[in-house]
Amino acid sequence: MLFEQGYHQMSMDEIASRVGIAKGTLYLHFQRKEDLVAELFAHSLSMFQDIIEKAQTRPGTAKERLVSVLEFMQLCFSDKSIHIVYALDNAEIACILRERFSLPVARIKEGVAALLEDGKRSGEFATALPTSVMVQAFFSLLSPVVYSRLLREDPQLTAEDLSEHLRHIYFQGIAKENREGQS
């Protein structure tokens, strides 16, 4: 419902009805819809933190480890099971959650930054590009709004193809051989 209707149009009555429970039961667990959204976000945030931590410790190049993060997140778009991406891409929800989850979100960004720094040290990624810009560009690849729109606008484009195209554009853009020496 959150994805279909948006935060403000979603109601606790509709949620209870769709889930098949009494409204009172829903209110036993979540006093307000903000609490429900925060719980969805917390769960997704925890999953995303685990993915980043595993990527940091697994063998492989920095690019391979970042690709594993992207692949997992993009797979989750099909069933919208990762609510963090939607929440971060939705201004009305991001505003509600920003204060409460600023530290965990910062840790996730730091994890991605660490992977990018590994790539810079190993010579995979351009050292001239600011890591902060690379991190922001990485997260922009995970925008479900843009992702869904692109798939709707080009019905011949598959989700797998789109993911591959986005990865190609991103990693070509930050590759050392493509960026070093350019102003």
From TrEMBL:
What sequence ranges are listed for the domain HTH tetR-type? 1-48
- For the keyword Cytoplasm, the answer is no
Q: Name one GO molecular function term.
A: DNA-binding transcription factor activity
List the SUPFAM superfamilies: Homeodomain-like, Tetracyclin repressor-like, C-terminal domain
Query: Keywords on this record?
Result: DNA-binding, Transcription, Transcription regulation
Q: Which parts of this chain does the entry mark as a DNA-binding region? A: 11-30
Enumerate the PANTHER family for this protein. HTH-TYPE TRANSCRIPTIONAL REGULATOR BETI, HTH-TYPE TRANSCRIPTIONAL REGULATOR RUTR
Q: What is this protein called?
A: HTH tetR-type domain-containing protein
| Source organism per UniProt | Ktedonospora formicarum
